[in-house]
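Priority: medium. Attachment 1 of 2:
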């Protein structure tokens, strides 16, 4: 009996891996069809195969399985989700976005790794584990890219915002979404200060590029890259993206008031600042600088804390306000 089981277990493991791979393929296809549906686009067998990077025959077998499970129906060349297929897709999407929120706010994972990790975990967490994660995170409404997280009931608001490429020269907007694929473009946008909550102003546009101002710096983006950013236009005449003063600009002995932590500051760095009491309205000021000028000791709520220059630069402060850093 021992010899039998020792030979049979690898076979079981291979079977489980095969079943898991099939389930992942089915769920990936459902999520893709849901993306098409949300975008108002029609998905065909060819587009399904292309998006999944598989052969037409493999996509056809996958479609047959989905139809057999009553998750997808085909009418002519168009593929549509059934109600159960839509619910299944939303469950996968909910887990994906919750996991990205977890990585962004509870770990030190790099932004470029959030999507890849969530792509794996969306297939591994059980519905019960997903609900526990949602509860532990405080039932967040958005993932770190600005995408809404489906509710437990599967509710999701309609797509909002305008592509950055459609903003006219001179108009300002607030960034509400930064697309995380392809990762190379996402990394470049994050490095330039694009994050949900950031203000941006279009200075000049032409057929191939946009000249912008974000966080006080001018940037030039090609239209493909800019197309990965969704914004909410601000009223005409309202400017955004102008230079902001940060704690790193404060002089020794100056007391300033925190306006917010930059949206680009995420994960443990953001949590540490919040734990130290760096919240809007708090008065803080530099009191002692190291010999090299970095780090600097700041007085906040009667205590001294040491911050590196890059940490201080992520704390935006109000202009023209002073006070006593030991008071609040």
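Attachment 2 of 2:
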């Amino acid at each position: 009996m021992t010899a039998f089981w020792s030979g049979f277990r690898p076979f079981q493991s291979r079977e489980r891996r095969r079943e898991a791979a099939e389930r992942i393929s089915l769920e990936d296809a459902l999520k893709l069809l849901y993306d098409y549906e949300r975008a108002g686009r029609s998905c065909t067998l060819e587009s399904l195969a292309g998006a999944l990077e598989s052969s037409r025959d493999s996509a056809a077998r996958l479609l047959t399985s989905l139809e057999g499970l009553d998750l997808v129906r085909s009418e002519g060349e168009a593929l549509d989700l059934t109600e159960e297929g839509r619910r299944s897709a939303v469950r996968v999407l909910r887990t994906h976005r919750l996991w990205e929120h977890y990585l962004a706010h509870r770990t030190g994972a790099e932004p470029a790794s959030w999507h890849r990790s969530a792509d794996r975990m969306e297939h591994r967490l059980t519905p019960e584990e997903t609900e526990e994660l949602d509860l532990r995170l405080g039932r967040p409404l958005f993932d770190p890219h600005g995408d809404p997280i489906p509710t437990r009931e599967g509710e999701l608001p309609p797509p909002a915002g305008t592509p950055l490429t459609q903003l006219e020269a001179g108009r300002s907007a607030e960034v509400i979404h930064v697309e995380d694929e392809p990762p190379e473009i996402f990394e470049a946008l994050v490095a330039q200060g694009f994050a949900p909550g950031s203000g941006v102003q279009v200075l000049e546009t032409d057929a191939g590029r946009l000249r912008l101002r974000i966080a006080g710096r001018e940037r030039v983006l090609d239209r493909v890259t800019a197309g990965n950013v969704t914004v909410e236009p601000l009223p005409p005449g309202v400017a955004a993206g102008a230079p902001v003063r940060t704690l790193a600009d404060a002089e020794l002995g100056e007391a300033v008031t925190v306006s917010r932590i930059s949206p680009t500051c995420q994960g443990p760095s953001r949590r540490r600042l919040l734990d130290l009491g760096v919240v809007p309205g708090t008065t803080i000021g530099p009191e002692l600088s190291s010999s090299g000028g970095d780090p600097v000791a700041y007085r906040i709520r009667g205590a001294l804390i040491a911050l590196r220059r890059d940490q201080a630069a992520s704390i935006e402060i109000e202009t023209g306000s002073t006070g006593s850093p030991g008071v609040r």
